[in-house]
Amino acid sequence: MRVGLALLTLFPGRVGGSETYVRGLLREYRAGNGPDDVTVLANRHVMESYRELAGGPVRLQHVASYRPGDGTATRMLAMAGAAALPGRAARDIPPDLDLVHYGVTVPIPATTAPRVVTLHDVQHHDLPGLFSGAERAYRRWAYDGSARQATVVVTSSEFSRGRIVEKLRIEPERVEVVHFGIDAERFAPGPREGDDQALDGLGVRRRFAFYPANLWPHKNHERLLEALALLGDPELQLVLTGQDYGRLERLRGRARELGVDPRVHHLGHVPASALSALYRRAELLVFPSLYEGFGAPPLEAMACGCPVAASDRASIPEVCGGAALLFDPESPESIAATVRSALEDEDVRARLRSDGLERAKAFTWRVAAERHQAIYERAAET
Known about the structure:
Number of strands: 13
Number of domains: 2
Mean pLDDT: 94
CATH architecture of the largest domain: 3-Layer(aba) Sandwich
CATH class of the largest domain: Alpha Beta
Helix content: 40-55%
Low-confidence stretches: none
Order of helices and strands: EHEHEHHEEHHEHEHEHEHEHEHEHEHHH
Structural class: alpha/beta
CATH topology of the largest domain: Rossmann fold
Distance between the termini: 14 Å
Radius of gyration: 21 Å
């Protein structure tokens, strides 16, 4: 079977979990745990960033007829052009693909082959107030339309499957759940050689809570700052990572109002080695997200032996499976009380570490890749 993996609209390093997903699959495909032939349909950014993932059954093909742009405005313009003139973006697509997998959802390039579409969530339906009218219109085309046209939809949790079926009115049998995997080589208990070097220069202190998340509204950073102010622990630092999307100054302003600004460190996008080192050094992961289609950071932290306190919303309880302390993410008081328990009760901390390590073992990219292979075969036969 010859599978095309469409990544034309992907900007490496900017989209969080969606990119973790396609990279995890490609590593397994390259190792032979997937289709016999995988052609990554790549823009120039992906060609540069994904070279190390080529090999074995996986090859990169530069689709020069699609020009991805360099920023948000030019990216949107490129997608609009591809939607208006689908033949142009499809000029460099191999004609003999048995199937196209839209790994980042957006239905570019157009194809008449069977389609597998990965849709992680329908947050724009469940939390519409967090999106502008233009963003909702884009998602209705790029997400809803793509999923409705798919032969099979892949999503990452039972929670998301239920919401996709209800909100998009897609037949339940057309929606398959495949959980993310965890990179067990990167995410493992420590201390590990190289951690000090990875963290050198980041300015983090030994005693800190960690939250890796882009500054999107649903990630709920402001309530986390309010909880930090309520904790009454002046020595505890809060380390944040991820893209800021122009929202960092507002968050800094709120931290100053609460009197916690000196204790909040936003590191921006950090390399993979630093991310795993941060999990191993943190006192705990705190994950106050209001909405996740999956939510990999709690599992990554568990795999590193880091206790987890997390939101009780959306897919997060399903993913954590009882191995985390859960709180109401809309209540700073609930966040603070749960974090305090995870920091101060050594019996609780020991249980969280033990249960977390066991929970993380259940999520592997090899299983995810093999499940995708079965879904590809089903879609091609359909």
